[in-house]
Amino acid sequence: MKIALIAHDKKKTDIIEIAKKYKDVLAAHELYATGTTGTLIMGETGLSIHRMKSGPMGGDQQIGAMLANGELHLIIFLRDPLTAQPHEPDVSALLRLCDVQSIPLATNVSSAVIMLESLQNGIYFNA
């Protein structure tokens, strides 16, 4: 399974903690991330991650292109709903593509944990 990991600046600590807790689960899959997020997760976990550009520099669009081409199976995108993002149109397009392609999308820690627990327990939730 191909999984994308993305986090806004104020959520990077959260995604690192999730990646550390579910390192064994994530290691069994092919991982992609936007630039800074990927670098931070790799540094803390040693996981192998294909890194895209940073979100504001086009990384969200790169992930979106992969989604549009059916190349991703699950997205964990920890969003900061309280801070305006300069690349919000890219973020909105990415979320819309998840809905169009019926790709599971976690936008907060609780939903990410549910998805990763499902993977850990062998439940495949994407029909």
List key phrases describing it.
five-stranded parallel sheet, 6 helices, alpha/beta, 16% strand, single chain, 127 residues
Provide the fold topology.
Blueprint: E1 2-7, H1 12-21, H2 23-27, E2 30-33, H3 35-45, E3 49-51, H4 59-68, E4 74-78, H5 88-101, E5 105-106, H6 109-120
Helix pairs in contact: 1-3, 4-5
Low-confidence stretches: none
Shape: globular
| SSE order | EHHEHEHEHEH
Q: From the alpha carbons, calculate the radius of gyration and give it in angstroms.
A: 13 Å
- Structural class estimated from helices and strands: alpha/beta
Total of helices:
6
Report the sheet with the most strands, covering strand number, pairing sense and barrel closure: 5 strands, parallel
Strand content: 15-25%
Oligomeric state, counting identical vs distinct chains: single chain
Query: Which strand order do you get reading across the main beta sheet?
Result: 3-2-1-4-5
What is the averaged pLDDT score?
91
How much helicity do the residues have? 40-55%
What is the CA–CA distance across the termini?
13 Å
Q: How many strands?
A: 5
Short structural description:
The chain is 49% helix and 16% strand. It contains six helices and five strands.
Provide structural commentary.
- It is a single chain.
- The model has no long low-confidence stretch (mean pLDDT 91).
- The chain is globular.
- The longest helix has 14 residues, at 88-101.
- The chain contains six helices and five strands.
- The chain is of the alpha/beta class and 127 residues long.
